[in-house]
Amino acid sequence: MQIKKRLTISNILMLIIPVVVIFVIAMIMSIPFSKAIESRFSIERERDPNAYILQQNIRPDINKFVDKEDFENLTKELQKLLEPKGYHLIITNDGEIISSNVTEEDKKAISIIGDDILFKSNSIVLEMNSASLVKNSFMRDGKIINIIAINSDYKPIIFDFKSEMSKFIISYIVLVIIISLIVVTITNAILSSKIYKKLIVPLELLSYGSEQIKNGNLDFEMNYDSDDEFNQVCGDFNEMRMRLKDSVEMQLKYEENRKQLVVGISHDLRTPLTAIKGYVEGLRDGVASTPEKQKKYLDTIYTKACDMDALVDSLFLFSKLDTGQFPFKFNIVNVNEYLRDFFKCAKKEFYGKEVEISFLSECDTSTEVKLDSQEMYRVLLNILDNSVKYNKNRKLKIEISLYDKGDLIELILSDNGSGVQEEDIPKLFLSFYRGDASRTKPNEGSGLGLAIAKHIIEAHDGQIIAYNKEGLSIKIILPKNYKKNI
């Protein structure tokens, strides 16, 4: 999952999860709070001697009372209810008091209220001064039955409903807020921890890679499997490491080649220079005392100087090719016509050297390639020249074959010589390689011919390959040219 998407989801969850959890907790908490409020009100209702509530509690079904015993039981029940609230009871039947437990204080309060209200009025609730009177009147068998409760020391409990509800609500809100903060903190910590791990692991991996590169180690590999932005970053880092490694190896290889080049130049120049010095000293010291010897010495000096000049030209060409500064002149040429012309020139070049050259083409006569004609001529002639130089057979046969391979052409130059040791084939295109470890035969070439040929072929976007097949074969692969791409 992409980090951007993961962060978006994480931010959404940081909102949704706390809201859902807080809502659930708030709903759950509302149950005990509701019960607590109800319990609080119930307790207050139990404590509250409210006259109107009391009137409802002393309203029995008189029709069920048959005899005196029923009234006695009623009296006991009502007294049990009224006494905790400070009330005393009077029950009258047709004006006659049949039960009473009033005190002197109650009697004083009754005298103030008046007998008419007490006995002759219907059901009534009366609160006057510090007295509270509750009366229920019933009609039975034409007689009036009064149940009267009186409290001469009445002190009503004032219950502030608004204040009590405010306290409960504030407590509820504070508790919900505290729990909400805890939930938000825990949710944020968990989600942040997960995001942190997703970020810190690749960052530590990149830090490790940077440290390895700084220390010169390019053989490590960064393995990161998560499908996010860091996957691409780590992949690019690995590619950078590989390119850097290739660059370092190429640089080391270049340095090694340069050293070999310097060694080769030194060796190949020292041999003719030594010869030239020797012959010059011979002329100077009078060793060549006759005109014939002097001419021979001078001819040798000239030949060695020409060898050195050819070596310097080859070095100069190789250097320009190696640095990519050689000015190629490409043209679109018909490959069949070009090779037939080269075949004719090659036959003239090696005429009289017991060399038989043949040409075979299986390529369409209209096939065209992009070539620098002069430099390709140099490559082909160098290959043939090597075949002649290193030939150990009396009669040398060279075959030039051209094949069509789809988008490519293959040009193969084969001889019937002794070939090359298999382990030496990869070294053929190295500079100064002659297949002679002692390097005692500079007259057989500079050892730069095939190295130059490789640079020229690669500049044509081609390949050059050597292999043994009844002698040595050199295969050159070049791309065809399509006019629509020109």
Automatic annotation (TrEMBL):
One Pfam short name: HisKA
Highest taxon of the lineage: Bacteria
Keywords per UniProt: ATP-binding, Cell membrane, Kinase, Membrane, Nucleotide-binding, Phosphoprotein, Transferase, Transmembrane, Transmembrane helix, Two-component regulatory system
Residue stretches spanning the membrane: 12-33, 169-191
Gene Ontology CC terms, in alphabetical order: plasma membrane
InterPro entries assigned to the protein according to its UniProt record, in alphabetical order: HAMP_dom, HATPase_C_sf, HATPase_dom, His_kinase_dom, HisK_dim/P_dom, HisK_dim/P_sf, HssS/ArlS-like, Sig_transdc_His_kin-like_C
Compartments in which it is found: Cell membrane
SMART domains assigned to the protein according to its UniProt record, in alphabetical order: HAMP, HATPase_c, HisKA
Residues covered by the HAMP domain: 197-249
GO terms, molecular function: ATP binding; phosphorelay sensor kinase activity
Histidine kinase domain location: 264-482
Top EC group: transferase
Membrane disposition: Multi-pass membrane protein
Name of this chain's protein: histidine kinase
Name of encoding gene: resE8
